[in-house]
Amino acid sequence: MTTFRFIAIRVLGAAVVLLVVAAITYALFMLLPTNPARAICDKPCTPDRLREVQAFLGTDKPWIAQFGAYLAGIFTGRTFGSGASVIHCAAPCFGYSFQLHDSVTNLILTRLPVTASIAVGAAVLWLVAGVAGGALSALRRGTYVDRTVMTIAVAGVSAPSYLVGLLAILLFGFVLGVLPTSGYVAFGDDPVGWFTHLVLPWCVLAFISAAIYARLTRGEMLESMSQDFVRTARAKGLRERQVVVRHGLRTAILPVVTLFGLDLGSLLGGAVITEKVFSMQGLGALLIDAVHTLDLQVVVGFTLFSALLIVTANVIVDVVYAFVDPRVRRRA
Amino acid sequence: MGRGGLVTANVVDRPVAAAANRSTGFRAVVRRVRQDRWAVASAVVIVVFVVVALAAPLIAAVTGQDPYGYHIDALNSFGAPRGVGGGISAEHWFGVEPLTGRDLFAIVTYGARTSLGIGIAATIVSIVIGVLVGVTTGFFGGWYDRVLSRVVDVIFGFPSLVFMIALTAIVPTSFPKPVLVVLVIGFFGWPSVARVVRGQTLSLVTRNYVVASTAMGAGRWHVIRTQLLPNLAATITVYATISIPSMIGAEAALSFLAVGVTPPTPSWGRSIGDAIGWVQTDPMYLVFPGLALFLITLAFNVLGDALRDALDPRRSNR
User: Fold this and answer.
1) Is the ipTM of this complex over 0.90?
2) Angle B207-B211-B215 (CA atoms, 0-180°, nearest 5)?
3) Residue A224 near chain B (CB below 8 Å)
4) Mean pLDDT in chain A?
């Protein structure tokens, strides 16, 4: 099976998964609840007015047409109503918030820099710290270093990120007074402020994942370093450093990369918690607000957007894997 | 936790798979675990928490408190607890909650019920579905296996935490929240259980005793009940132990985000969420529920690790 065909099949599979996720989400949030039109219908909500709003939203049509219009909107944009009160939602239209008077795509894009700043920084931090810690621990197996790293790791896996975050705020923010405790500063406005505001969120979000990665890397390293090819590499006289990096770590890193890809996609979920701890107005805050104001358009759009990230990340991991490890292609 | 793949966070990274030539019976696993003093200590901590959860009314009664009664007199004019450490006194062992003056010791004690109850119930939901799907897909194979693999693909495509948060927007308020949390968390947990059990089943069905049983004319369900499930029991138990802390963490995270268990039902996660605004003035309000949550999660993780190592010595830490 060629690599191209493998990629095509994976992308197709991902598209099907996304379609099913979209259908379930749409059905659950838009079709089940009591009339979404009633929510935005003015207060006296006369039957005439309700019909008007339903026609405006398109909820007077059968469900399959509604879902079709929603999906089409993602690719071609969508127009609600007609005449003077027309509202246009440009492609890609994941929905339109009638409460915030903006398209869900726009809302997500305006909040994205905050969440992306937290997520990317944390991801780099935990990948480096986790892999380094795990590899070190494996190479010094059974020593004081190993036990220390693994103790920190098991504590890290068990400590909820928000608890660590609040304790960090208490220590660095209030007791020592060296770091700001909340809020977000745009990089363009003040790069130093951007950094100081993000240091704690990065560490907090990275802490737990770093612990998980350290444990995983350690396990994989122990296994790879006991393989025959490592003995061969040593036997042919390579320096220990080369044996570790080029043979041991390189084999051990594969499962770590898989996990990293999956985590990147679902990082949005973790950011929700971090944003609440540090009072940042990112994507997580957008979702929580939408849930509390029953802004279902935002809720559905957001869920689909996150699913898109996860599924895309999965496909990228699979494709990268297929290039690195030919066995995967044959199995598919 | 801090990860979107919340429920599976702790189990995805190191799947459980019994070594082929080791005994994976209950007794062998327990014997190996008993040699690990940290695992034994963790088991003791878990037992203590379970006792606290079961006997919460009795324990709270010792101090003459309950988690619902307001004690405005224990607060100053800003709503913060009077006295040291968030109002620690002979009456209020852990101090009181800011703004309401509810007894924090009683809240933490009763919180153990919420945490363990939901954690264990959600684990049962995910284990039951996961084992059922895993055994049957591994044993029957064919189109049934393929269809369910696709279902698992779809569930892994769902942003679980985002979806759990979103669900609270549409579920009627009359629906009991703890039940909803159990169902939602449990539902997103089963695919990883199913994957492990399916893998184990695939290797079991080639064993002679299973083949022999089938050859002697045993029905499919009979083979599953008498041959497969008993041999999967140790794996399932270990897996359940590893899942419980993830489930407890998921409940706490949802409650922390104010979309989980609703007040006044005590929940450690919600207390920590409420403590955000009080970190500077009343840090003990954060510390007590936080410590409880950390301890129980840590104990389950350490015990789960030891059980897994006992089942699969290849991955041993020591």
Assistant:
1) no
2) 165
3) no
4) 80
